[in-house]
Amino acid sequence: MRPDSNNQELSDITVELAAREPLFHRAEFGSSRQDFERMMAEEFWEVGASGQVYSRAFVLDTLEQRHGGPAKEELVVTNFRCQRLAADLYLASYNLDQSGRITQRASLWRQTPDGWQVVYHQGTVVA
Questions:
Q1: Phi, psi of 4 (to 5 degrees)
Q2: Average pLDDT, whole number, for the chain?
Q3: What is the pairing mode between strands 40-47 and 53-55?
Q4: d(CA 108, CA 121)
Q5: Distance from C-alpha of 87 to C-alpha of 39, rounded to nearest angstrom
Q6: Percent of the chain with pLDDT over 90
Q7: How far is residue 55 from each of residues 44, 48, 72, measured CA to CA in Å?
Q8: C-alpha to C-alpha distance for 62 and 35, rounded to whole angstroms
Q9: Which among 25, 6, 10, 50 is positioned nearest to 118, based on CA atoms?
Q10: Could you tell me the CATH number of the domain that includes residue 113?
Q11: Domain count, the chain
Q12: Calpha distance 40→118 (Å, rounded)
């Protein structure tokens, strides 16, 4: 494998993951509980912007309620970065502006034979 082919592979993966973030806000990847279950690893957990730790089950319940009706959010992603951590594990990080509420976000994504699955997500409010 040529050295620059690794850079191209990471560039391609960065584009793929950028299309999936902000996490759980991309209708093209689904909006039903079943869609979110496929998107999340069984061991998924999250640390919210509040510092609260959330289980996979809690996040699934919350997403099911959130996507039960029409929602309009102003979301702007900036400073998106992607880093390979292991053979099939990638860190995606970015800033998210939700109508003036700025957070730094990080997601760990695993590339599986069935597609991308998120393993972990964290949001931190930027002061």
A1: -75, -15
A2: 90
A3: antiparallel
A4: 6
A5: 19
A6: 69
A7: 7, 11, 25
A8: 14
A9: 25
A10: 3.10.450.50
A11: 1
A12: 5
Say which residue, 43 or 27, is predicted with more confidence: 43
Q: How large is the average pLDDT for residues 48-71? A: 86
Read off the tokens for 2: 């040529």
Buried b (16+ CB within 10 A) or exposed e, 65-93: eebeeeeeeeeeeeebebeeeeeeebebe
Q: What band does 68 get if pLDDT is binned at 50, 70 and 90?
A: low
Task: Flag whether pLDDT at 50 surpasses 60.
Answer: yes
H-type alpha helices, the chain: 3-20, 33-39, 56-66
Rg of the chain's alpha carbons, rounded to an integer?
15
What is the arithmetic mean of pLDDT over 26-31? Answer: 84
* pLDDT for the residue 71: 59
**Tokens, residue 57:** 């089950």
Q: Please say whether the beta carbons of 80 and 21 come within 8 A.
A: yes
Burial of 100 (0-12, 13-18, 19+ CB in 10 A): exposed
Question: Domain containing 108: what range?
Answer: 3-125
User: Is 70's pLDDT higher than 70?
Assistant: no
